[in-house]
Design a protein that fits this description.
Length: 198
């Protein structure tokens, strides 16, 4: 069994999502002592934005790659293969400016590969990357469940994961981080109860 932990917060030690990904990781490693834990810190080791070469490497068949795309392909494909090799994927996903950090978007950009994680047929898009559990560790300054503000953070991740066929997704969330220490403490306590139920 492989557990993959992804972090994308730029808030260092103060990060709420990093505290959540740590607690979720501890939960799964305690329940599965033989599991392999793999960590990808997208802030310490960012993936570049996709460009002309990496787009060709990711999205076109290897047999037609230019020399530059062929050189880029192994590292690009390794990001996807690490995801596909994981039974549990824990995604630290802070809300930054109503969306996810661009570091996390760059990781997502490696996952959408026709013929590998999805395909189109007469029935529309079909996801091919199911069979794993994903836990989203979400933190947000405000409150979004009351529907007064649009968010493109959890909804973006859920759309992408659903598109590639991942249907076992749980979100552990701390909202109202901007309201101060009492709100954070209450949010963390509620999140830890949810983690225990995973
Ligand atoms: C660059 C940046 C942008 C942010 N944008 C938003 C936002 O649009 N909406 C919101 O509710 N909170 C926003 N916040 C607050 C964060 O969502 C909150 O601090 C959360 O704890 C971030 O997770 P982290 O602590 O793991 O980094 C922003 C914070 C940062 C650093």
């Amino acid at each position: 069994m492989q557990i993959l932990r992804i972090d994308s917060s730029t808030n260092g030690e103060q990060s709420i999502t990093r505290q959540l990904t740590q607690a979720i990781t501890d939960h799964f490693t305690a329940a599965n002592p033989g599991a392999t834990l793999v960590k990808r810190d997208l802030v310490a080791n960012p993936l570049a934005h996709i460009d002309t070469v990496t787009t060709e490497a990711i999205r076109t068949p290897p047999e037609s790659h230019s020399e530059a795309a062929a050189a880029a392909y192994p590292a690009e494909r390794a990001v996807l293969d690490q995801f596909l090799a994981s039974d549990v994927v824990i995604i630290g996903a802070p809300m930054y400016n109503f969306s996810i950090p661009s570091q996390l978007k760059s990781w997502l950009d490696r996952l959408g590969v026709a013929g590998v994680t999805f395909k189109y047929s007469e029935n529309g898009p079909e996801g091919l990357a199911g069979g794993r559990k994903v836990v989203i560790a979400s933190a947000r300054g405000g409150e979004y469940e009351n529907g007064t503000m649009t968010e493109n953070q959890e909804s973006l991740l859920l759309t992408m994961l659903g598109f590639i066929g991942v249907d076992d997704v749980t979100t552990i969330r701390v909202d109202k981080v901007g309201y101060g220490p009492d709100a954070i403490a209450a949010g963390m306590a509620a999140a830890k109860e949810k983690i225990d139920e995973l």
